[in-house]
C-alpha cells in the first residue's frame, strides 16, 4: 500500500543497545517484503547508533543520526524532497561507495526552545524535556556522550506553552525529563539555581492545578544525593504531588563511586536519606549492581549500606544490573558478581524492598558478543 501512495519511503527507528537484537531482526524482516527494491531509506538514531554507528549500519541502515538530530533530520528531509545528495548533512554516519565509514559530526548544540518535545499535530505527548546535557560524565552513562557535558535549559516560557497546549487537551499531569531535577537553570554542577527552579514549579502549577498533578523527583527526573538539602526539600514539599522520590546512589562503595566518576560520596547518600526521612516522601534509591572493578570488599560495602538504609529508613532499592553501553568509558567492561547479587535480590524481594528489571538486563548482558 505504501508503495502505491508514496514515491519514497523513509523508515526511521530510534533505539538503545538493549533493543539492538530486536531491531536487527526487524530490519531483516522488512527487507524481505515486497518493497525491498523500492526507493526506501533505512534511517536510525538514538543511544546505540550514536555510540556505535558501525553496528547499526552493518545490520542494514543506510544512515545513522548521531546525538542531537533535530536540525540535521530536517535538513535531511529537505534534501530528500529536492532529490539532492544528503551526505553533506552534519550529525550523520554512513558507509561510502567503498564501504568506508564516514562520520560527519556537528559541534553546534541546538536551542531547545526551537524544538518542542511533544507534537500537537500528531497528538503525541509525554514528559517535558527541560534540561539537556550532563556535566558529571559518569563512566557508565551515555547522557554526557550523546548530549555533551554542557547544560542547556528550555525556557520557562516555552515549557509553560507546551503544558498549556496539553492542558487544552485535558492532559494536566506533568512530568519532566532532566539528568537531575535541581540542575534546571544552572550553568554547571557546582551551583544550583533554585530561584529559577521555583519559578518553573510555580508557573507550571498555575496552569495545571487543581485538575493536574506535578511530579518532580521521580522518573524520569531523579535527584542526585548531594542536591538534597533544606532548600530543595522546601521546594519538593511545596510543589510535588508525588508521594515518593528517587535518589541516584548507584553504589555503596566510595571507591567504586570514584572509579565511576560519580562525583558524590556515600556520605551524601546517607545525608539525603536522613533529610528525606523527616518528610512525607517515600524514598527510592537507584543502585547499579556489578559495576566494573568491584572487589569483594566493595560488594560487602554495598550490602552493608543497603541493609542499614532499608532497616533504619525503610527505603526501597531500584535495582539495575550494570550494562556496558556503547560510547561510554565502561563500554568494554562486563558486570561483576551477578550470581551473588541475584541471591541477595531474592532476600530483598521477600521483604518487598527492591524492584527493577534486572532479569531483562542480565539476559541482554549474557547475549553480548
Word description of this protein:
The chain is an alpha/beta fold and 369 residues long. The protein has 14 helices and 14 strands. The chain has helices at residues 2-5, 20-30, 47-51, 53-58, 70-81, 143-147, 156-167, 194-208, 230-239, 254-259, 266-276, 296-313, 338-350, 358-366, and strands at residues 9-14, 40-45, 63-65, 92-95, 101-104, 128-129, 131-132, 152-153, 174-177, 214-215, 244-250, 282-289, 316-321, 354-356. β1, α2 and β2 form a beta-alpha-beta unit. α7 packs parallel to α8 and α8 (194-208) runs parallel beside α9. The longest helix has 18 residues, at 296-313. It is globular. The protein starts with a helix and ends with a helix. 34% of the residues are buried. The mean pLDDT is 93.
Ends distance? 38 Å
Q: Helix and strand succession?
A: HEHEHHEHEEEEHEHEHEHEHHEHEHEH
- Please identify the structural class as seen in this structure: alpha/beta
Oligomer: single chain
How helix-rich are the residues, as a percent range? Answer: 25-40%
Any idea what the shape is?
globular
Strand order of the largest sheet: 1-2-3-4-5
Major sheet details? 5 strands, mixed
Give the beta-strand count.
Answer: 14
- The residue-averaged pLDDT reads 93
The gyration radius over C-alpha positions equals: 22 Å
Task: Assess the beta-strand content as a share of residues.
Answer: 15-25%
Low-confidence stretches: none
- Total of DSSP H or I helical runs spanning 4+ residues: 14
Amino acid at each position: 500500500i505504501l508503495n502505491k501512495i508514496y514515491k519514497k519511503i523513509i523508515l526511521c527507528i530510534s533505539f538503545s543497545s538493549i533493543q539492538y537484537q530486536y531491531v536487527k531482526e526487524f530490519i531483516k524482516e522488512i527487507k524481505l517484503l515486497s518493497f525491498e527494491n523500492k526507493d526506501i531509506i533505512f534511517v536510525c538514531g538514538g543511544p546505540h547508533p550514536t555510540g556505535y554507528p558501525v553496528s547499526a549500519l552493518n545490520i542494514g541502515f543506510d544512515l545513522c543520526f548521531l546525538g542531537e538530530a533535530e536540525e540535521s533530520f530536517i535538513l535531511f528531509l529537505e534534501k530528500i524532497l529536492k532529490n539532492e545528495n544528503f551526505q553533506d548533512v552534519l550529525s550523520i554516519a554512513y558507509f561510502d561507495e567503498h564501504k568506508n565509514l564516514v562520520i560527519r559530526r556537528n559541534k553546534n548544540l541546538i536551542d531547545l526552545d526551537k524544538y518542542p518535545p511533544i507534537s500537537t499535530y500528531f497528538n503525541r505527548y509525554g514528559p517535558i524535556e527541560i534540561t539537556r546535557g550532563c556535566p558529571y560524565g559518569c563512566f557508565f552513562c551515555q547522557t554526557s556522550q550523546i548530549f555533551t557535558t554542557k547544560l542547556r535549559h528550555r525556557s520557562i516560557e516555552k515549557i509553560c506553552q507546551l503544558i498549556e497546549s496539553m492542558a487544552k487537551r485535558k492532559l494536566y499531569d506533568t512530568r519532566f525529563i532532566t539528568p537531575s531535577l535541581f540542575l534546571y537553570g544552572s550553568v554547571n554542577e557546582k551551583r544550583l539555581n533554585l530561584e529559577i527552579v521555583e519559578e518553573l514549579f510555580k508557573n507550571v502549577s498555575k496552569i495545571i492545578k487543581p485538575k493536574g498533578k506535578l511530579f518532580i523527583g521521580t522518573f524520569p527526573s531523579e535527584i542526585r544525593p548531594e542536591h538534597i538539602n533544606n532548600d530543595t526539600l522546601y521546594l519538593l514539599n511545596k510543589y510535588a504531588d508525588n508521594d515518593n522520590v528517587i535518589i541516584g546512589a548507584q553504589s555503596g562503595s566510595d571507591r567504586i563511586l570514584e572509579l565511576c566518576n560519580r562525583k558524590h560520596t556515600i556520605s551524601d547518600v546517607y545525608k539525603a536519606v536522613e533529610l528525606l526521612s523527616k518528610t512525607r516522601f517515600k524514598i527510592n534509591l537507584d543502585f547499579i549492581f556489578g559495576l566494573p572493578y568491584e572487589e569483594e570488599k566493595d560488594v560487602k560495602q554495598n550490602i552493608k549500606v543497603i541493609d542499614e538504609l532499608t532497616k533504619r529508613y525503610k527505603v526501597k532499592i531500584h535495582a539495575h544490573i550494570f550494562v556496558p553501553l556503547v560510547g561510554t568509558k565502561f563500554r568494554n567492561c562486563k558486570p561483576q558478581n551477578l550470581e551473588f547479587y541475584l541471591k541477595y535480590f531474592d532476600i530483598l524481594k521477600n521483604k518487598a524492598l527492591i524492584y527493577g528489571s534486572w532479569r531483562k538486563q542480565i539476559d541482554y548482558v549474557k547475549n553480548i558478543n
